[in-house]
Amino acid sequence: MSTTLLPAPKDIRDLLTDLVGREVTVAPGEPVMPTPREKSSVSIFVDPQLKVLAVCVMDLPLSGWTAAALALLPPGGVQDAVADGELYPMHVEALYEVVNVLSSIFNTPGAPHAKLHALHAPGETIPLDVLGIASSLGNRIDLDATVAGYGKGKISIVLPF
Q1: Are 73 and 90 in contact (CB under 8 A)?
Q2: 36: which DSSP letter?
Q3: pTM value?
Q4: Other C-beta atoms within 10 Å of 111: how many?
C-alpha cells in the first residue's frame, strides 16, 4: 500500500467548486495555524486503523464561507458569525459535510482509504498530537481560497511525517 499524497491546488479547487456550486479560486498562501487568537476548524482524516493520514485546517472565514455556500445560506448570516468569532450550529453541520466530502481527495489509487474521523469547529479544543501535525511546516499545502459571492479565507492540508 502506498502513502497518502498531498492534493494539487487544482484538485482542491475543483472539489470545492463542484461541492458548493460556486466558483472557488485558489492561490498559494500562508500556512493556517490553529491558535486561540486565530480561530480555525481542524479536520482529521484517518485510515481504517485510525492512523492519522491528513489534517485540514481552514481559517474561520473559509470555514464559514464553504459551509454557507453548501447550505445555500445568505452571506450576511455567516458574516455575522465570523464577526462574532464563531460558527453557528447550522454552519458547523454544513462544514462537517464539506470536510467529509473533502476526504475523497485523499482516496487515490494505491493510497490507504481515508475517512473523516473528527471535525473540531473554530474555538474547540484540538488534541495535542493533531495540533502538532497541523502546526508542522513540512509536507503541507497552503492556499488562499475565495468562494464567489461569499469571501476569502485560507486552507492548509498537512500530512504527518
Answers
A1: yes
A2: S
A3: 0.95
A4: 15
